[in-house]
Amino acid sequence: MRTLSGYILTNILGWKIKGEFPVLKKSVVIFAPHTSYWDGFYGKLYLMQLGINYKFLSKKEFFKFPLKYFFQIFGSIPVDNTKEYIDYVAGLFNNSTELHIVLSPEGHLAKVTRWKKGYYYMANRANVPIIVGYIDYRKKEIGIKKVICNPTDISIVRKEIAELYSDVCAKYPENFSHELKV
């Protein structure tokens, strides 16, 4: 069924949707590259048309008046970079019948040489798969690259994810390193 957000994304804005979102009740969804606030806009349109229960992880600094109301409506929850936060997210999964946690593993818009590892630890602790989503501005594509069903070895997962993003073009390519240590 086509939704208004899907119509806007594909017909008005000219984007293509690639890959099927898997039939899963729970997952950690990573979206990269993240070099622009537009990524969140396109990602929101994409996720809205899927009809899944999701929450975005956003910087806790955004949750101050008046922006906090926008981010709450947007479906965001604030990130706290502590080890206890991993347990908090695992608890969200345990207390939900359906939930997809969406995040950008880069952690911010500026160029990084190493991704944060929270996405891996959240998936592992909650025993849920990692869905590798992407947004490619050169091809005007947004979608899913792969599902990593059993993320038990971080070094294998990181290598596989780096290979999946090797041909993806960010809005600001100078801020996305293909030699990234994910």
TrEMBL record:
<keyword id="KW-0808">Transferase</keyword>
<feature type="domain" description="Phospholipid/glycerol acyltransferase">
    <location>
        <begin position="28"/>
        <end position="138"/>
    </location>
</feature>
<protein>
    <recommendedName>
        <fullName>Phospholipid/glycerol acyltransferase domain-containing protein</fullName>
    </recommendedName>
</protein>
<dbReference type="InterPro" id="IPR002123">
    <property type="entry name" value="Plipid/glycerol_acylTrfase"/>
</dbReference>
<keyword id="KW-0012">Acyltransferase</keyword>
<dbReference type="GO" id="GO:0003841">
    <property type="term" value="F:1-acylglycerol-3-phosphate O-acyltransferase activity"/>
</dbReference>
<dbReference type="GO" id="GO:0006654">
    <property type="term" value="P:phosphatidic acid biosynthetic process"/>
</dbReference>
<dbReference type="Pfam" id="PF01553">
    <property type="entry name" value="Acyltransferase"/>
</dbReference>
